[in-house]
TrEMBL record:
Statement: the UniProt record of this protein carries the keyword Cytoplasm: yes
WD repeats: 158-200, 201-232, 283-324, 325-366, 369-409
Organism: Seriola lalandi dorsalis
Chain spans, region Disordered: 1-46, 242-270
Cellular localization per UniProt: Cytoplasm; Nucleus
GO cellular component labels: cytoplasm; nucleus
Protein name per the record: WD repeat-containing protein 37
């Protein structure tokens, strides 16, 4: 960190030049004493008469006074710094005596770690007492994982976008491909097995903020910063599969990510791929950025969410606007449709999400849910009767559609949560975070794993979105971030559930 680097470099400089500092200090003392020993009639200017300077004598005297004040201020700061250092060392010794150590031996950049004999409640109480932390009763949902750890195998990295990737999705029809939506104004389709780019969509004039695939046809729906949503058809041919790489790591690995420069990626971009530039249908009714879009069950209608605080419902065949869903007080951030019913959930920066019911054509009811204290970044349906919402308030909440007055589970994290996803078969929640982590939880809020993030794998910028694919008796999780790449993971579900 810059602060740590500055502190350590300052200490190193002081260690390298102790003689120079003592010499300068002694010179300042001799200068002051010699001035005080002179008779009162002799002024500072008399000391400088022999020096060649064009400055007036009064100005030179003022400069001497100012430099003296600066020296005294630095001396006071130096003394205070020494006292603070002694206090930190004393606190470090007390914590060490209580069974706690400072990682790395440097109290300016270490993190507290406790011995295994201390319970979580004891450590929490010590931290609250020592650092005067908040005394509010917050129950952490994190559970320590011991014994055998589940394995998360890196499947493939998908590199080729020239800007951050906001969203990704997996097709629900054959052939199964991965789609990514990027701030570079394009959407790309990828071979999951080989990581090869198969097709580029370049019909938008702004950032592509989301991508969703038709439930039965080879059609894609993209939302963009150009205030439109596009429906376009694609045709791809999968290349011959390659053997998977032999790369595996424990899901709870604590290694830090690489410090490579932004945009420094491995592999080649999709320079020579088929490109689609014309949309089958263009949806134009919004007055602001279209941040998300999704297909309703059956694929005959789509819903879009915009920064103009409204969500629109369209007929796919005619591109006709059917309903405008208003009521949010601030910009919308996401929208999602139920997999089997005509239900829509919209999320907003106004800290709420709304459930829209279109099952009865004559009655379009809406319910407002106020369970978060900051922007609701996404809210998604599960295969069952649940809604899972994530927020910038660092929490994820699980709701029951039959009784949504209060959440049935709350997951508290250490970073803002972006676009979440829930696996259809095992109902595992994947949380992408601003701090580059991806964590897995079950529907009751129990932490199952954390994806590996090391020098060799993982995202180097914030993770924006996650998506599951549970085809062919395997469970793959895909993540994308603002480091311009998407990553595929093979999740060992039986090991995760056994660890639970």
């Amino acid at each position: 960190m810059p602060v740590e680097g500055g502190s350590s470099s300052g200490s190193a400089s002081a260690a390298r030049h102790p003689k120079q500092k003592r010499k300068a200090h002694s010179l300042s003392i001799r200068r002051t004493n010699s001035t005080e020993d002179r008779p009162l009639g002799i002024q500072r200017g008399d000391m400088l008469e022999g020096q060649d300077s064009k400055l007036p004598l009064s100005l030179r005297n003022n400069l001497l006074d100012l430099f003296g004040q600066i020296e005294r201020e630095f001396e006071n700061l130096y003394i205070e710094n020494l006292e603070l250092r002694r206090e930190i060392d004393s606190l470090n010794e007390r914590l060490t005596g209580d069974g706690q150590i400072i990682e790395g031996g440097d109290p300016t950049k270490g993190a507290l770690k406790t011995k295994a004999s201390h319970s979580t409640s004891q450590l929490s109480q010590k931290l609250k007492t020592t650092y005067k932390a908040s005394t509010s009763k917050i129950v952490s949902s994190f559970k320590a994982t011991t014994g055998s750890r589940a394995l998360c195998q890196l499947l493939k990295e998908y590199v080729g976008h020239r800007d951050g990737i906001w969203d990704l999705s997996v097709t629900r029809t054959q052939p199964v491909v991965l789609g990514t939506a990027s701030a570079d104004h394009s959407a790309l389709l990828w071979s999951i097995e080989t990581g090869k780019c198969l097709l580029r969509y370049a019909g938008h004039a702004g950032s592509v903020n989301s991508i969703k695939f038709h439930p039965t046809e080879q059609m894609a729906l993209t939302a963009s910063g150009d205030q439109t949503a596009h429906i376009w058809r694609y045709m791809v041919q999968l290349p011959a599969p390659q053997p998977p790489p032999d790369v595996s790591a424990p899901c709870d690995e604590d290694q830090d990510s690489s410090d490579r420069e932004e945009g420094e990626v491995d592999g080649e971009g999709p320079f020579e791929v088929p490109t689609v530039r014309v949309a089958t249908a263009t949806l134009k009714s919004h007055q602001g950025v279209v941040i998300a879009a999704d297909w309703l069950v059956g694929g005959r209608q789509v819903v879009t969410a915009s920064w103009d605080r409204a969500a629109n419902l369209y007929e796919v065949e005619t591109s006709e606007l059917v309903h405008t869903l208003t009521g949010h007080d601030q910009e919308l951030t996401h929208c999602c449709t139920h997999p089997t019913q005509r239900l829509v959930v919209t999320s907003s920066r106004d800290t709420t999400f709304r459930l829209w019911d279109f099952r009865d054509p004559s009655i379009h009811s809406v319910n407002v849910f106020q369970g978060h204290t900051d922007t609701v970044t996404s809210a998604v349906f599960t295969v069952g009767d649940n809604v899972v919402s994530g927020s910038d308030d660092r929490t994820v909440k699980v709701w029951d559609l039959k009784n949504m007055r209060s959440p049935i589970a709350t997951i508290r994290t250490d970073s803002a949560v972006n676009r979440i996803s829930v696996s259809a078969n095992q109902r595992i929640i994947a949380l992408p975070h601003d701090n580059r982590q991806v964590r897995l939880f079950d529907m009751s809020g129990v932490r199952l794993a954390r994806l590996p993030r090391s020098n060799r794998m993982g995202h180097r910028r914030m993770v924006c979105c996650t998506a599951w694919n549970e085809e062919n008796q395997s469970c793959n999780l895909f993540t994308c971030g603002f480091d311009r790449q998407a990553i595929g993971w093979n999740i060992n579900i039986p090991a995760l559930l056994q660890e639970k």
